[in-house]
Amino acid sequence: MMVGRKVAELAISSGHEVLCAARGLSGQVPEGARLIPIDRDHPESMEALRGERFDAVVDVAQFSVNWVRQALGVLAPTTDHWTFVSSVSVYADTRTRGQTTDSPVHEPGEDGVEFTPEQYGRVKVASELAVREAMDDRAFVVRPGLITGEGDHHDRYGYWPNRLCNGGQVVIPDTGMPVQSVDNEDLGRFIVHAARHRLAGTFDAVSEPRPMREEFDEIAELVAPADTEFVPMSSDALVAAGVNPWTGDRSLPLWVPAEYDGLMAHDAASAYEAGLVTRPFAEKIDAVLAQERLLGVDRARKAGLSADQEAELLRTV
Q1: Which of 95, 112, 279, 292 is most buried by a 10 A CB count?
Q2: Is residue 283 left, alpha or beta, with left meaning phi > 0 and alpha meaning psi from -120 to 50?
Q3: What is the rounded CA–CA span in Å between residue 43 and residue 96?
Q4: pLDDT of the residue at 227
């Protein structure tokens, strides 16, 4: 997972000894880290860690409360601080802007249910509860939103800087919806800061929200050629033209249905007060474009419009 690797790299660069517990199949662990091979689908493999004492554990389990419970059962008694990487998907209300970590969350859910955005949130809620029950005031729960930059393989946020680099007419959603994300390195630094300072509690790790058009304008100022022209289309027009929100084929990333209007508009003031720092926007976009180039700017994407799809759409305007 992109967050786990970045946290390991940053911890090593800060002088910490790092052990990575993973299958070891998706690539080498960062230089300076030690790999303990485990497969969390096989709980007995966790026994390799029993008795190890840790100053801090960072758990990045994505969609399994059973994984979280198993790790806690082995490691909680000998760990001083526990970070669980959750998600803003835990919130039951996706429409209201300005929610905080005190806002209502979904009812907890269990493993073994087909993935949906709501079920993902429910499993994250159950995982958070397990961590708090086991670790109490040694638990740090961080809820990021859309994560951008190094290691991002989802093709969502990266679609926009990559597309704007090519200029010409660019279809954008004509909406006042907000945009909110977090750079992977900023999130990693916040997690390392929390472990070092034994920070406890629950925090939304996201940027300050701002209107989508303002986000696009600033990206364009940084990367777009002079001939770039935005072509705004209303949500109704996009739906009528068969454009999908958020992700997938023939989609416009960051655009969501109205009932998700609050998904990227959380109040993260408590996280900034606790030590979250976001680097300058230009550096964030540099990191996004570096990842785009690493993956291949002309690749088949998991999200966004192809050149042919956008040209077809422009003919309808």
Answers
A1: 292
A2: alpha
A3: 39
A4: 94
Enumerate residue ranges in the chain where pLDDT < 70. Answer: none
Q: What tens digit of pLDDT does each residue of 206-217 get?
A: 999 999 999 999
Amino acid at 117: P
Assigned token pair, 43: 């709980």
Cα radius of gyration rounded to whole Å, the chain: 20
How far apart (Å, rounded) are the C-alpha atoms in residues 41 and 61? 11
> What single string gives the DSSP state of each residue in the chain?
-HHHHHHHHHHHHTT---EEEE---SSPPPTT-EEEE--TTSGGGGGGGTT--BS-EEE---S-HHHHHHHHHHHGGGBS-EEEE--GGGBS-SS-SS--TTS-BPPP--SSS---HHHHHHHHHHHHHHHHHHHGGGEEEEEE-EEESTT--S-STTHHHHHHTT-SEEEEE----EE-EEEHHHHHHHHHHHHHTT--EEEEE-PPPEEHHHHHHHHHHHH--TT-EEEEE-HHHHHHTTPEESSEETEETT---GGGTTTT----HHHHHHT-----HHHHHHHHHHHHHHH-TTSPPSEE--HHHHHHHHTT-
Q: Give 171's strand partners.
A: 231
Whose structure tokens read 């001083």? 80
